[in-house]
Amino acid sequence: MFNTVSGRMPERGEAPGALAARSALSGRARAFIAGVVACASLVGCASSSDVVATSKANTYTVAASATGGRLAWARAHEQAMSEARDYCERRGMQTSVTKETVSGVQGLTEHGSSMSFECHPKF
Questions:
Q1: pTM of the prediction?
Q2: Which of 54, 90, 116, 118: disulfide with 99, CB 3.0–4.6 Å?
Q3: What share of the chain has pLDDT > 90, as a percent?
């Protein structure tokens, strides 16, 4: 018996409806995988450079970038802030951002945050 859904004959001993069920299941699985991949590409990730000392005492710079979606700039900003905060806290100090430059404003492009900061004693 020819299966009009798949366009092929069922295997020997296979029920005619089993082929259609197997095709539908694999189609659902493919759709699920495609959905997961699409969501993962929109979430993106952020990465940062090492903290670099400047010529001014207790002043440093760090850069971060992120891709995927409209809020990539926020992930880049948070990654740079986190790196600056961690750097100062490891020295028993607190962070004070002096300047931040952002880049990339269109969706699905790389967004960046370049930050200058100082480490000050905690009060």
A1: 0.61
A2: 116
A3: 41
Measuring CA to CA, which residue among 7, 5, 2, 9 is closest to residue 25? 5
Angle of CA points 65, 68, 71, to nearest 5°: 75
Q: How far, rounded to the nearest angstrom, does the alpha carbon of residue 60 sit from its chain's CA centroid?
A: 25
Structure tokens at 39: 């969501």
CA distance 88 to 121: 9
Compute the distance between CA of residue 63 and CA of residue 77 in angstroms, rounded to an integer: 9
Assign 118 to helix, strand or coil: strand
Is residue 117 within 8 A of residue 96, CB to CB? The reply is yes
What's the whole-number average pLDDT of the chain?
Answer: 77
- Is the distance from CB of 64 to CB of 80 less than 8 angstroms? yes
Structure tokens at 6: 């798949």
